[in-house]
Amino acid sequence: MTFDDVTVRRMLNLADRRREGPKVTVDERAQTALWLGCDPGEAKRHGMRVDERLPLLARDERIRDDLDAARLQIAYRTIQTGFARRTDASRRLGLLQEGAIPDGSGALCVSVCGLLTGYARADWRMGRICLTSPTVVFGRNGRVVDSHLWLDVRNLTPGLSGVEPPKDLRIGDLITVTGRLMGYSDANGSRRFGLGEWEPTGARLMYGCGRGLKPRIVHVPRHLTPHMIVCRLDDGRAEWADPYALDLEIREWEERFPDASTDLRLGGGR
C-alpha cells in the first residue's frame, strides 16, 4: 500500500486531533496479546513465533538467579547499538497500516511491542525511553515498523489502555504499550509518525531456552530481576529512575559482564 502526499498530510492531521478517553472492552484474548506482544492464536495460525518478530536472545539453559538475569539484560542493552539507526520516514507508516484504530474522538491508537534497551535524559531527569524493533501487536503481518521508537516519559498516561499496567519496566524487558499516533517533525524536518500519550500493558524479560534453531520462548521470573529498573508503576503513578544512577548501575554490570552476549544467540533461527 502506498500513499500520496495529500493522504499522508490528512493522516498526520488526524493523528494530531484532540484526544478523548478510550472507550474499550478488552477480552481475555486481547489481554494476552497486550501482555505477550502478539496474539498467540494468530501467530500459531500463521506459523510465526515471538522471536521471529523481535531479536530475542537464546541460551542453552534456563536463567536461575539474578546474576544470570543481569547478564541477559546487558546483552539486550548492546542490541541497541546494532539495531537502532535512522530509517526512512515512510517505514513508520506501518504503525498506521498495520493495526491502528480510532478512539472516542477519532484519534488513532495502536499497540506496539519492543525491547526496552535505552533511555535519554531531559533537564537532568529521565526524558525518553527507547524500544528496539517496535512491532504492531495486532498487525496483519507482524513486521517491524522501524529499528527503534522513542517514547516521551511525560506522555505516560495511566488508564489509557483499559488494561492493568505492569508494576515496573527494566532494561531488556519486552514491553507492550498502547498509545495514540502523533505526527511530528524529526531533526531533518521530515514528517513522521510516533506515539503521543501511551501506557505500558505488559513487561517481561524474555529469552529463548534450549539448543537448536527454535528454542522454547520463556520469561525470567520477576523476583530474579531486581536490577536496572527504569520505572516503577503504582496506583496510577510512575516513578522514573534517576538516569545518572542508572548509568552507573549499567556501567558496573557492563564491566562485570564484558562478554555478556558471547554465549547467547538470536532466536528464530537467525
Could you provide a short overview of the structure?
With 270 residues, the chain is α+β, with helices and mostly antiparallel strands. The chain has 7 helices and 13 strands. It has one domain (5-17, 24-266).
Summarize the structure in words.
- With about 270 residues, this protein is of the alpha+beta class.
- The chain is about 25% helix and about 30% strand.
- It has one domain.
- It contains 7 helices and 13 strands.
- Strands 2, 3, 4, 5, 7 and 8 form a 6-stranded antiparallel beta sheet that branches.
- The longest helix has 18 residues, at about 65-85.
- Residues about 20-25 have low confidence and may be disordered.
Q: What percentage of amino acids are in beta strands? A: 25-35%
Number of helices: 7
Oligomer kind: single chain
What pattern of helices and strands is seen along the backbone? HHHHEHHEEEEEEEEEEEHE
Report helical residue fraction: 25-40%
The profile of the biggest β sheet is: 6 strands, antiparallel
Give the overall silhouette: globular
Instruction: State mean pLDDT (0 to 100 scale).
Output: 78
What is the SS-derived class?
alpha+beta
**Poorly predicted residue ranges:** 22-26
Strand element count: 13
How far is it from the N-terminal to the C-terminal residue, by CA?
28 Å
Cα gyration radius (Å): 18 Å
Overall structural domain count: 1
